[in-house]
Write a structure and sequence with these properties.
Blueprint (H helix, E strand, L loop, with lengths): L33 E5 L2 E4 H10 L2 H4 L3 H22 L5 H27 L2 H13 L5 E10 L2 H12 L4 H8 L3 H4 L4 E6 L5 H9 L9 E3 L2 E12 L9 H22 L24
Antiparallel strand pairs: 1-2, 3-4, 3-6, 5-6
Helix pairs in contact: 1-3, 4-10, 5-10
């Protein structure tokens, strides 16, 4: 097989390692099939499969023969490196390996919980509850004039009540230059898109009316509500990821609560000074 020096970014690679030839027999390879040895330590086909699963997507798309050779090289080199420090492992090393193993198995447990919870039926039920069967959200079309004082806002409101054109006053007076050029037009917006005092005034106003001055952190507003309509409901495909995340969170929290409630848990470390988390010298003692 051809060698590929420097093929795996970020790994220490050595060229010229002789690869053993797999014995050809009638037995189909399994995860336990030995593909190489390093000083008697066996490397199996299953280990190469796991190494492939860990690769970034751009590497997984490479041709199988190139992957096989590269991953065997990687496994051989890792085994040689591991053996070179096997007799000098420290407490830090043991703790890293222990926490890595715990993290992997915890992740495996959560994957099972999520796979069981996030089903097509669960997604459809969540969609029906949150969108299909729920009242339609409202959207509002409005204009506004933003000024720096209540007095100025009241003065403009008096002019509007007397018949002055709202859009022309917005163009001449509003400090929100982005909307002022369009007569203060803000277009269509839904709930949650405007600051609370502004939104409350819009919701309370009847279409076609102009509010009294409304104060926000930006200044003082006069708001003209033009139209109100029902917002279009999203399709299930448009909100699938959002719904899946919500279902996943509920399922994971429930599973964690179930497992911790059924476990005998003690916390003798609660009296330890939290600042000791930063004392990495403890790992060398």
């Amino acid at each position: 097989m051809a060698k590929h020096c420097g093929f795996w970014a970020g790994l220490v690679l050595a060229c010229g390692v002789a690869l053993p030839t797999l014995a050809q027999d009638e037995t189909a390879p399994t995860a336990d099939t030995v593909v190489a040895t390093v000083n008697g330590t066996e490397i199996t086909l299953g280990e190469l499969i796991i190494l492939r699963e860990k690769l970034p997507a751009q590497y997984q798309a490479l041709p199988d023969d190139m992957l096989f050779t590269g991953l065997m090289d990687q496994a051989i080199q890792q085994a040689a490196l591991e053996q070179s420090v096997a007799e000098s492992t420290t407490k830090r090393d043991e703790l890293w390996m222990r926490t890595d193993a715990r993290s992997y198995l915890a992740g495996k447990a959560l994957q099972a919980v999520v796979a069981e919870a996030v089903t097509d039926a669960a997604l459809q039920a969540a969609y029906d509850t949150k969108y299909a069967n729920a009242p339609a959200a409202k959207e509002y079309s409005a204009q506004h004039i933003l000024v720096d004082s209540e007095e100025k806002a009241k003065e403009l409101k008096t002019q509007i009540d007397g018949g002055a054109d709202f859009a022309e006053l917005a163009k001449a007076n509003s400090s929100d230059t982005g909307s002022a050029v369009n007569g203060g037009d803000l277009g269509w917006f839904g709930l949650g898109m405007m600051v609370a005092p502004f939104e409350a005034a819009v919701v309370a106003a009847a279409p076609g009316t102009v509010t009294d001055p409304v104060q926000t952190d930006f200044g003082w507003h006069l708001i003209k509500v033009n139209e109100v309509r029902d917002a279009a409901k999203p399709t299930i495909d448009e909100v699938r990821e959002e719904l899946a995340a919500e279902i996943e969170q509920v399922a994971v929290e429930a599973k964690l609560a179930e497992l911790t409630a059924a476990s005998e848990i003690t916390r003798p470390g609660e009296g330890i000074d939290p600042a000791l988390l930063r004392d990495a010298t403890l790992l060398d003692k």
